[in-house]
Amino acid sequence: MRTASVAYAGSAAAFAGVLGWAATVLPDTVASHFGGDGRADGWSSRPAFLLTMAGIGGFLLLMPLVVRLAMRLPPGMVNVPNPEYWLAPEHRDEMAARMTRALRGFTALTVLLLTVTTWQTVVATIEGTGLPVPWVPIALYLVAVLVWLVRLYRHTFAVPDPLPASPWLGRTD
């Protein structure tokens, strides 16, 4: 199993665990929105909070499947780096596989952020305090997404170099 798939499965399991824990410990009224200073300024019922979080998490976890299906669209409707290479019929399957793996990684990052914010919300609600460090998870997420984007453009969808000419490899061009 590749790293992106492991991260995807791990983030899904962590999110399910936090959501299950939240369902058992949350009171009837949940702090569901926080201001920039970390203090709660919006409230919802426990079922509404849990259904909202489950819906967002479920939507995010379906994104790699949606993208895999979107790869069946005509080439003019798909936007990837180096399209003349990746949208050629002989490279489309590899492009779809790479895009799916890349999106699993991005989804894992986003679900991890959702998991952390859900955990923080539960703790803040139970303790009656604000979020302890509201901007740290978001800042870490943005840095991780930046790294992911650089890797996506520089490695995932870089056009592979052909093998160099070498008499040992049977190529002398």
Description:
This protein has one domain. A two-stranded antiparallel sheet has the order 1-2. It is built from 5 helices and 2 strands, in the order αββαααα. The model has no long low-confidence stretch (mean pLDDT 87). Helix 1 (3-25) packs antiparallel against helix 2 (46-70), helix 1 (3-25) packs parallel to helix 4 (92-127) and helix 2 (46-70) packs antiparallel against helix 4 (92-127). It is elongated, with a radius of gyration of 21 Å. It is mainly α and 173 residues long. Strand 1 (29-34) and strand 2 form a beta hairpin.
Task: Please outline what is shown here.
The protein has helices spanning 3-25, 46-70, 83-86, 92-127, 136-156, and strands at 29-34, 40-45.
Give short descriptive properties of this protein.
173 residues, mainly alpha, 2 strands, 7% strand
Order of helices and strands: HEEHHHH
Cα distance spanning the termini: 37 Å
Our Rg estimate from Cα atoms comes to: 21 Å
Mean pLDDT: 87
Beta fraction of the residues?
5-15%
Counting DSSP H or I runs of 4 or more residues, the number of helices is: 5
Please identify the structural class as seen in this structure: mainly alpha
Number of strands: 2
Bin the helical content.
55-70%
Question: What's the overall geometry?
Answer: elongated
Q: Biggest sheet, strands in spatial order? A: 1-2
Low-confidence stretches: none
Main sheet properties: 2 strands, antiparallel
Q: From the structure provided, what is the oligomeric state, counting identical versus distinct chains? A: single chain
Q: Give the number of domains.
A: 1
